Amino acid sequence: MHSLATLRKAHEVHDQLPDQLLRVYRFAMHLCRDQHLAEDLAQEAMFRAMRQRDSLHEPRALQVWLLRIVENLWRDWCRCHGKRGVSMLQCDPADAQLEPVEQLSLSDEVERAVAAMNQLPERQRVVLHLIACEELSIAETSEVLQITRQAVRSSLSLARAQMRRMLMPPAATNTEYSSGQEQ
After folding, report:
1. Global pTM?
2. Is the residue at 92 inside a domain?
3. How far apart are CA 140 and CA 126, in angstroms?
4. Is the pLDDT at 42 greater than 80, yes or no?
5. Per-residue burial over 87-109, b = 16 or more CB atoms within 10 Å of its CB, e = otherwise
6. Would you say residue 181 lies in a domain?
7. Alpha helices in the chain (DSSP H)
8. 28 is in which domain, residue-wise?
9. 33 Cβ partners below 8 Å, 6+ apart?
10. CA distance 87 to 84
11. pLDDT, mean of residues 91-104
12. How many angstroms separate the CA atoms of 88 and 34, rounded?
């Protein structure tokens, strides 16, 4: 029989789950870049969370726990379908299935940043997404991806450096190069 404290925790998790659905879907969409698969992953993650809510020892860790479930479901899907993950480079931005109003609202800078982020290796891209978009800490990102904090820091540092290189205006790159040549 469950203790009263366990029942309270399960009830607290149950109450918080709907607030996490958008975040779960957004992360699933970021991983797979397919609306229908992202919906399936998010739905399955929420179902598993509901079914296993008693196993979450600390309700404050719900967000990390849910994102870890999505990550694991994605890995399982890739393994079952013989894929190492869908490269975002293979995805046509027109296939992102955004509403026309949303497509129009994307600025040139955001489009450039998204395109640059799409070119990052998968681990760097996912780490950057979790920290910059989902606002997770390094420790939380480490838990979601089940990698060390040092691996998260390293991937984040590499991702940021690569993003800076890709987003630097061409004129600034040429000026630095030519000034280095003249000396």
Report:
1. 0.60
2. no
3. 13
4. yes
5. ebeeeeeeeeeeeeeeeeeeeee
6. no
7. 4-32, 35-51, 62-80, 100-105, 108-118, 122-128, 138-145, 149-167, 170-182
8. 1-86
9. 86, 88, 91, 95, 96
10. 9
11. 46
12. 10
Specify the amino acid at residue 144.
V
pLDDT over 70 (residue 16): yes
Q: What is the pLDDT at residue 183?
A: 43
Q: Residue 101: how many CA atoms within 13 Å on its side-chain side? A: 0
74 and 132 share one domain: no
Residue 101 forms part of a structural domain:
no
Closest alpha carbon to 61 in 113, 163, 137, 3: 137
Mean pLDDT of 58-66: 81
Residues 52, 74: Cα–Cα separation, whole Å: 18
The three-class DSSP label of residue 83 is coil
Nearest residue to 71 (alpha-carbon basis) of 154, 14, 136: 136
pLDDT of residue 88: 33
Q: Sign of the C-alpha dihedral, residues 41, 42, 45, 46?
A: negative
> What 8-state DSSP symbol labels residue 60?
G
Answer whether 27's CB lies under 8 Å from 73's CB: no
Q: Note whether 62 and 129 are same-domain residues.
A: no
Of the candidates 86, 114, 131, which is a domain's last residue?
86
In whole angstroms, what is the distance from residue 39 CA to residue 72 CA? 15
Tokens of 28: 């699933």
First to last CA, the chain: 78
Six-digit token pair at 64? 């990390």
The pLDDT assigned to 90 comes to 33
Residue 178 lies in a domain: no
